[in-house]
Amino acid sequence: MARHNERHYTHRTGWIRASVLGANDGIISTAALILGVAAADSGRTAVLTAGVAGLTAGALSMGLGEFVSVSSQRDTEEADIAKEVWELEHTPERELAELTAIYQEKGLKHDLARQVAIELTAHNALGIHLSEELGFTESTRARPFLAAWSSMAAFAIGAALPLLAAIFAPNGARILTTLFVSVLALIALGYAGARAGGAAPLRPMLRVVGGGIVAMAATMAIGKLFGAAIG
């Protein structure tokens, strides 16, 4: 029997989503925090302290939040699996009828649909019912630890870019340097996320960069106003 080697991307959606979300939040939130503090005419120490605190708190928060969220999804999946196992053990004919009906809805005639259902049930009853009835497979199931680590690491890496820009930028060019590096990082993130998911890169790049610029500009404006109000 020939092996199915066609390349797909859906098995990557869990860690891609967590990584892109984490890196996007890391770049934007840390850059916005640094720009907001810098716009209020704070010195280098205040800017860097805010950046380091934002990176640390954000990475931990993203990792924990992702773990809790995906764990809840995993719990729901486990409950569905337990229910399906019970039904296969106690009402196998009903489950066979459900599977037959699913294949009839996909266009097979009743006799062929039932034959297919019988063959697939004999091969892997639980797997086929989870796939056809509930719509998930082992490759797409929720993985809390993978999602948490992907999100936390991506946030830290993303946040480090504007932070390093602020550290090494001259005092008079800190805002422009941080903005420039952050926009470049967002462009790279949009491109990398699109390529990893097999999508065309232009729209994701525009979406990521556009949202980031709006967030950073708004934070800078608030920082400037706040600095003027208390200065």
Describe this structure in words.
The protein is mainly alpha-helical and 231 residues long. It has one domain. Helix 1 packs antiparallel against helix 6. It is elongated and about 75 Å long. The termini are far apart. The model has no long low-confidence stretch (mean pLDDT 85).
Which class of secondary structure composition applies to the elements?
mainly alpha
Portion of residues in helices?
Answer: over 70%
Poorly predicted ranges (pLDDT <50, ≥5 residues)?
A: none
Query: What order do the SSEs take from the amino end to the carboxyl end, as H and E?
Result: HHHHHHH
Largest sheet: none
Rounded to the nearest angstrom, the distance between the terminal CA atoms is 76 Å
- Tell me the fraction of residues in β-strands, as a range: under 5%
Mean pLDDT: 85
Number of domains: 1
Envelope shape: elongated
Radius of gyration: 25 Å
Q: Say how many strands there are.
A: 0
Put simply, the count of helices is: 7
Topology:
Elements: H1 13-39, H2 44-90, H3 92-105, H4 110-134, H5 144-168, H6 174-196, H7 202-230
Helix pairs in contact: 1-2, 1-5, 1-6, 1-7, 2-3, 2-4, 2-5, 3-4, 5-6, 6-7
Q: What keyword list fits this structure?
A:
231 residues; mainly alpha; elongated
